[in-house]
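Example A, followed by Example B.
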Amino acid sequence: MFSKDDKESFKSSDSSVIGTEMQINGNIKCQGSLVIKGTVKGNIECDEIRLSSEGVLKGSIKSKDSEISGKFEGNIFSDTIAIGSTASIKGGINYNRMQAEPGAKLEVDFLLGLEEKTKVSKKTNLAKSLKTIKG
């Protein structure tokens, strides 16, 4: 999606592939390229990731380059992201460069930059609150 040279990196012999018949539950950390054609439930940290159109990933991605064409739910932290027309993405995308093809289904929050934003929420103890109101 970015250039022919960018796509060539995913075709190199040092890519790890999770095939269509594979299902993985757990986190993955690897160097180089990772291609997902199967199903993964877990967080992924790698240099480059490609979620193919038949791939499913539920978790978070931290990578230099990401190409999403399959079903993804979670948060992405990637310097460069390419979204294919067959992609279905729910979650948050933190990026520096992005390109998307028409037809992708997106329910996401886009955040320029890779800093992780944390939501601060104050949990109240309901029983304690009611006690204070009653006196």
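Example B, a separate protein, is given below in the same form.
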Amino acid sequence: MKKGARGLAIAARVVASYFGSMTILRNIGIALLVIILIAAIGIAVLLRGSKAELTVDEVSGTDPTLVEPDEEWFPTIRVAEPIGWQEGETPPAVEGLEVTRFAEGLDHPRIMYRLPNGDILVTLTNSPPRDVGGIEGFVMKLLMGEAGAGVPSPNKLVLLRDTNGDGKADVRRVLREEGLDSPSGIAYRDGTLYIANHNALLAFDYELGSPKLTGTPRKLMDLPGGGNHWMRNIILSPDGENIYVAVGSASNIGENGMEAEEGRAMIWEYNLEDGSSRPYATGLRNANGLAWNPLSGELWTTVNERDMLGGDLVPDYLTNVPIGANYGWPWVYYKNTVDTRVDAPMPNFITEYARYPEFAMGPHVAALGLAFTDEGHRMGEKFARGAFVARHGSWNRKPPSGYDVVFVRFDERGNPLGKPVPVLGSFLDGNGETRGRPTWVEWSDDGGLLVSDDTAGIIWHVIAPGAAPAPAVERVRGKSLKPQTELKGDPREAFTDEFAREFNPLGN
């Protein structure tokens, strides 16, 4: 009996231990589920982000609404996945314009450049392998693939030619692959073709019409490579003596230290005569499009401003770039609004000498390609005087912004007016996806506007059918500013933009 009782007791303990273990395992499982649920809720909250309160138009133009910053420690995420265009489908255009496909089936076309003989060069390109820091950089690296920018760079220079003037390229040739490394900017003058890789400015000998770009390039200058912003657009001065190179920052607000930003967030000037280089303008977080304003002769650029201050800040902009100009990055934006997130010591008097951008393009629109109207364009009287800008589209705003092409009107003095005017409507499909992303703008030989769509692999041709070629824009020439004989009020404000606009007919 004792043995039997002992056996029963042992059996009872075994059963109790078994079910006790099951209880522990069950409790552990429940705890894990709770942790996973909390983590999922946290991730959902993070990804939800903040919603913009203002329309894009309200944060655009010559007098944009600048709200109080809404600092984010994790960026708002709203990526529109590219789904491409259906056969025969085109972007919606404003009344009076016709859109056709100039070229398609291209592998990530970005920057375009029209040669003097009418040939169109285009760089097929993408980011070099990303090695970026900070929360924004980490998120960008993860999400660019979803936005259509995560594929390896094709690294090709392609020639497109419309031989019969029907608005469609019937000749396509790969001019060059060797030695191209995330190429973007293109320029040409007197037998020399200039190409900007992400890390160097190169010069090639090239005869117009040649089917290949051969020979060994000459490296003119090294450029800071990669970073958050890798495109390097270039433009020659009208006299051909200098070439200007836009180099974006490696970060959002210098969070990796300002040592990592050396040579970045600026436009460089390279002298082709003696090989010297110097910073031409600074404090530009990510300058992209470069163009000479035919009305004033000034250099203008599009600039992508900083992120993680909410959906309504900070608007990208279009502005003139006088020599020595500084636009405040990373310490301030729009002249005197201090970004308190920046750790680097702020330079003395920066709010006194930083410039206020000329025209806001809207928050997070990613303003890229820029082209002024000039002699020969056939876009019609509605677009007679001003600039076309491709807004590539946001990845971090709710609702999305950009994904379109707009026109900025200019007055007779060469200054921007009003709000952006639609040219090509939204590339978004209304279901959180996008058919493509407008990237660059350039003039075709027949006076049409070319728009590269990098994720769809298409170059669009936009024209006003029946419109006559426009006459040349008459350059505004004013007298020199009158010398000031006395200082009134705060001497730091004696020579402001307002003084220049009042006494200089050019308004610059």
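On Example B: Residues 370 and 389 are 5 Å apart (CA to CA).
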